[in-house]
Amino acid sequence: MVEPPGSCFILFCHVGSSSSSPAAWVRHEYDIGTRKMDIEGRQRMKRSIHCITSCGGKLYHFIRSTAYGVLELSPEPVFTTVRMKPASPFTTTDMFVASIFSVDVDGKLHLVFIFESGGGVVADVAVYRVDLEKRKHVRIGSIGDRAILVGGRRNDMGAAGWCRARRHGLLPNSIYWMNPGDRRLRVYELGKRTEEVRDPFKGVAESADGTWCRPYWMIPART
Q1: Domain range for 200
Q2: d(CA 159, CA 176)
Q3: pTM of the entire structure?
């Protein structure tokens, strides 16, 4: 599945092929309405999907804390919306949600929230299980021997995945976040609520024009 940013189409490929049905990319256009560009709503633009997460044979994309988009391919794309009770992640008045990531953990949809205070300091990290049947978000304090790896910010709905922690030398019950703002890797232990900041780019020179290549996660297969 490929979702070009800002577009209103997806590219889908059925893995595997045979002589009678070769694998091929298929383009599907969609229309899921519009969103406001100003407070009065006089200017609007087409809404596009971001950060599709596969879970339970369906594809989900986060719209807001009170709604999820659901995409089913059977075989043509069918879009529906699941209404949710609003999440209440804020613990203080000076905290706001900076980044949100959706991830399938053992067949259940989860959201990772990265909170930042006014000074850009990360104040808290939270993981919510998305209960689609009861249509609510449930905050959880432990993900066991797992490490969730995320990167990017909410504006571009970065990627997320997970793997077994101890098997791959990672800290259990932790969130690994690659912050695109300061290029630091932050490791959060959910139970102890501790943070470790690492600098993976230390000693790496920027290009002549001052740009740098964004890193991406290569997550091992879960066996």
Answers
A1: 87-223
A2: 12
A3: 0.78
